[in-house]
Design a protein that fits this description.
There is one protein chain. The protein is of the alpha/beta class. The protein folds into two domains: about 220 residues, Rossmann fold; about 130 residues, Rossmann fold, CATH 3.40.50.1100. It has 18 helices and eleven strands. The strands form two sheets. A six-stranded mixed beta sheet has the order 1-2-10-7-8-9, sandwiched between helices. Strands 6-3-4-5-11 form a five-stranded parallel beta sheet. Helix 1 crosses helix 9, helix 3 runs parallel beside helix 4 and helix 10 packs parallel to helix 12. The protein is globular.
Length: about 400
Amino acid sequence: MPDTVPVIPGSVLMRDSRLADRAFQFMQPFVDGEIADETLKLILDDALNFPIPLIEVEENIYSLELFHGPTLAFKDIGARFMGRVLPLLNKGKKDLVVLVATSGDTGGAVANGLFNVPGVRVVVLYPEGKVSPLQEKQFASLGGNVQALAVDGVFDDCQRLVKSAFDDKEIMETYHLTTANSINIARWLPQAIYYFHMYAQLGENAVVSVPSGNLGNFTAGFLAYKSGLPVRRCISACNANDTFPQYLISDNYKAKPSVETVANAMDVGDPSNFERFNYFQENNKDDIRKFISGVSYSDKEILETISDCHARTNYLLDPHGACGYRALKEQLLPGEKGVFMATAHPAKFAEIYAQIGMDRPRHEVLEALRDKPVQSLRISSNLRDLRSFLSEAF
């Protein structure tokens, strides 16, 4: 985390600013002295070369569509920035090995952002059988400098393996290692950009509802708030993995084994970004608790929400966005305008729509993957297996 959080100038909220210009105003104070301004502008122009539209779903409820990047998920924003920064900062050193754990969308975004980048090798760890088939193909069919490892376990096991690798003296002495999870601030920090982009389009009295799993998206929004984003409040909308909402109720953080749900990218029982949230709330807990709330929904409630919203508005929610939308429906107050983060294109979860009698959504980017073979290796959730893979592969 940065030692201090800079206050972002009000010009970042100018309605007519380009996304990349807005991004530069936010990012520059954090990288000043490390990356030249002109280089940073070029990186952001290249990384953020797709739209992030704000769509009115119904009166006073809007969707911020974050899925118009190359892998159709909000993770493209941070991954594409990181993919352009890592080679710049790593120049002249030995090959960089990037470990990344994914519950669905992170793996595809990172693999795409770093595919064939010189001097970078990517290792994606994912819970076998617990990501959608098309999500798996986004990172496990590339080959080249990307290797997928199917872990016998859940996402929390994959995340634990990545963290354990950084605590392992043998691994750290042998490899030039980094991560592309939101543990890496270069992946996490750019996610705050679209909160400013949202507010510039919507204006005052905004309430933000964030589908939450590992809490990276939520804490990025909280960073934006600490930097001067004048939103009224923020809701963390979870699936049945309700560790964070329960913490907000009890003030007792208790990690749980993750539960498999239809909103698979949020199947996290021990969110690593809780540590960032704790950093923010230190010595300021009472004020922060007035600003945030948490809620969780069952699979049944998520599917009902998708079906009901589509029948009334003709807007198709993905299962993660459905949590954010439902939270606004239940909690929005008169005079407020609600925005939920639509984190991934519905076509990435096509299999679940049949459960509620809806047509399978499609997207040409994903259709092109259907016939590609998965190239992954199976490992256990023991660090010994990851260490063995690294020694053989690198």
